[in-house]
């Protein structure tokens, strides 16, 4: 199953190159099942850093650095108390809470999108960062929180996808540090060829995603983003229920 997760990085990277997110939401549930919560989230986080670093050069010109700062920095700050809290709460309850909050938040955001003015102010960006950081360190999924902001702000797809890459580098790096320090999480002991397999899968996925750019309508892309976010939330709830049982 571990080899399957590493190969899954190909599909996850291709999706992330097109939509801006999806890597952690696609890989984290399988990694947690295969390796346990601690090592599963750690593996997902380090692969997410690699994937975003690979993509940054080709997406640099579309990055909205103001939003990267106003979302990314609060996300990194929120990881510290969230990791401290996560070390003291049953992991199953965390998965349930994160999943339910995302499902409710995303549903409300979709309802608001057609009836309200775009929400782009600083408090909304800060709150998005807090949600992304807490979701990443507690359950390995920070994408749904950013998707909610993307929906309510009507963030253009190209800028949204590009801006998420430096954010994921910041958030996933802080997640690795926070989980290790407060929760005792460690990286799984993979052989060198497994790491190489993951890197090759990420590189090929990035190339595939790049080739698909411009061939998919923006509305379809954002629809995929929303589906990924909702899928990640549902998988989080399912993971929590399975752990409780």
Automatic annotation (TrEMBL):
It comes from the Bacteria. Pfam families: TauE. The chain crosses the membrane at residues 30-56, 68-87, 93-112, 124-151, 190-208, 220-241. It is found in: Cell membrane; Membrane. Keywords: Cell membrane, Membrane, Transmembrane, Transmembrane helix. It is a multi-pass membrane protein. Belongs to the 4-toluene sulfonate uptake permease (TSUP) (TC 2.A.102) family. This is Probable membrane transporter protein. The lineage of its organism: Bacteria, Bacillati, Actinomycetota, Actinomycetes, Micrococcales.
């Amino acid at each position: 199953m571990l080899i399957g997760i590493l190969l899954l990085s190909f599909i996850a990277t291709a999706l992330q190159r097109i939509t801006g997110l999806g890597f952690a939401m696609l890989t984290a549930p399988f990694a947690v099942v295969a390796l346990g919560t601690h090592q599963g989230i750690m593996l997902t986080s380090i692969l997410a850093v690699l994937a975003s670093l690979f993509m940054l050069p080709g997406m640099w010109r579309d990055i909205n650095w103001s939003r990267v700062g106003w979302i990314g920095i609060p996300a990194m700050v929120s990881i510290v108390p969230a990791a401290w809290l996560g070390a003291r709460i049953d992991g199953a309850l965390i998965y349930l809470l994160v999943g339910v909050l995302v499902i409710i938040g995303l549903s409300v955001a979709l309802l608001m999108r057609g009836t309200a003015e775009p929400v782009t102010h600083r408090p909304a960006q800060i709150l998005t960062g807090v949600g992304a950081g807490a979701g990443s360190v507690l359950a390995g999924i920070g994408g749904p929180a950013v998707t909610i902001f993307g929906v309510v702000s009507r963030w253009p797809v190209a800028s949204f996808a590009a801006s998420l890459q430096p954010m994921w580098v910041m958030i996933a790096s802080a997640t690795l540090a926070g989980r290790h320090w407060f929760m005792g999480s460690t990286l799984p002991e993979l052989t060198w060829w497994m790491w190489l397999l993951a890197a090759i899968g990420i590189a090929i996925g990035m190339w595939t995603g790049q080739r698909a750019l411009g061939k998919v309508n923006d509305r379809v892309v954002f629809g995929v983003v929303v589906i990924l976010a909702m899928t990640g939330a549902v998988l989080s709830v399912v993971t929590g229920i399975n752990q409780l049982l």
